[in-house]
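Feature request, filed as a ticket because there's no other form

It would be nice if the structure record came with a short human-readable summary line next to the tokens. Right now we just get the raw output. Example of a typical job, pasted below so the devs can see what we mean:
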Amino acid sequence: PTARACADRYCSVEPDEQKDAEFLAVLHECLRMNYILPNLWRIARGADLTIGEGKHKRRIADGTHIAASGMAAMFDPDQFDKPHKFRSDRSYWSYLNYGHRLHFCVGWDLSNIIMIEFYRALVIRNFEPVLNGRKVLRTLFPWHYDVRYRAPQEP
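Raw output as currently delivered:
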């Protein structure tokens, strides 16, 4: 969907629980299609090992450099029906955006809220009402941050 279509369908100034859930599904599918961390690089240590199951079973020698591709996993046809088609109706738990099992992000729920609010602000930025000549944004994010750094004084 285009940014305008998302704005019209999912984003309003006032939060809506159902629309937020649908918008989050769109965001997670966007992340699946353009995964934020395409590869994790590791070195097998300790001993030779075997990973995977069935046709994916592989023997890895000690010291081998390994690229674990989250991007490839997100397009695995064994896990995703029509993996190259954008579908926001996929099961939330099929995504690897927040990791998997023991490596699942403990801040996933907070991150989802931030993602919704951040992208709501981004998408509706041009569609906000104006009050006294200033745009009104009722989300957790201001229009900009002023960051000022003062060097510490020497003792």
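Something like this underneath would help us a lot:
The longest helix spans residues 17-33.
The chain has four helices and six strands.
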